[in-house]
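Make up an example, fold above all:
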Amino acid sequence: MWNRPRFDLKVRLTLRVAAITAACFAAISAYFLIAADRDAHARIDGIAAIVAKSLELQQGKIQWLPGPRSDFPNLDPVAAYVMTPGLCLAFRGASGEMLQRFCSGAPAPASPPPQAFAAFYRSLFDPGREAARPVTVRGAKLGEIVVSVDPAVRTAEAWHDAGRLTIALAIALPLLCLLVYAALARALRPTRLICTGLERIAANDLTARLPPFDLAELSAIRDGFNHLAESLDNALAERSELTRKLIALQDDERRHLARELHDEFGQSLAAIRALASSARHTAAQDCPALLSECDGIARTATGMMETLRGALFRLRPPDVEELGLVASLEGLVAGWNGRSRGETRFTIQFDGAFETLPAAISANLYRIVQEALTNAAKHAGATKVGVQLTMAGEEIALAIDDDGRPGDASSKSGMGLLGMRERVAALRGRMSFDVGPNGGSALRVVIPLAATEPPVLEHAA
């Protein structure tokens, strides 16, 4: 199984979209606050201009009409039209004294702004800034109109506008994240097929292929994946063919060596035994003291012939194609039980019909079992060795367990294990050699019965 990333790609992209969206909302909020501040200043500037113009008209009317001028400035007529909550109108005389001032009250806000927002807003803007317009009549400045808004009212209005944007953000952001996550999950669903294909490739299943994808980027990955899998499959097929040829050449060399040993050494040992028997017959008549030496030569020759028979059996086993795999393996196990003289007990079990196996699979399975039994008995020092051969579906499973030394270096890295791996690779199978559940060693081999067409992974809807 592949190591999973610490952060899911969909979650990471969704968080980035959320961060960008929040930044956009913040920028929009800042824009609205700036625009509202400009509109507020423009409004009080406009009010100051209107009031100043009204006072200029008042002064002009007073000059043209007879009567006292004590009612100037009179802000009452214009205040009724321009006053808003928190607005203050004032007339500052030419000498700087405040001659008249009107301020409208402001109701307490339903939700007062937080102190942090009020401090932040006042640090960026000037909600209490005054707008002043001079009142001039015939070139003489009589004073100026001063218009201002209560800073608390401006801050409350800004918080009201910002609060609406905050509510909109609180509603829209989770919904947007959910929609983005769903869209990304759908768009990235084919990555599961890619991961599955990579896991099959890692498990030496080079028949895995990816289907076409809608996205151009994933289609490029699919083309590269399928090309890589096909190239590896072809390379493995060429390697398997070369391995099969090498194994066939090795078997031919073994048969040739077996013939040479049988013809040369076998006849020589038979001749030695015959000469020892003749010498013993002569010694019995002329020199009885040599009888023991003649018997020793005969025993040595007999032991060498027994050893030679075992070597010939390992070099050239019974014809598996004629006897069948089951009979050949039963004979192999029986031979090991006979040679071990009770020191090691060998058992074998079969599950399935092995009569129709191809000759190449049968011969290689026999060699694998033969080498595994040799490793278990001679190198691992096992006292119990169990062989189980099972045919299920389109695969053959071989399991060999022993109670020997699992850490034995010669059994794990020797030429015997290498030969078994080569035979399994030639059959496009899988092999593992590990410590058994109850100690000892556990050899597992899985061999497909026949090659199949490369399957295509189903496209996820």
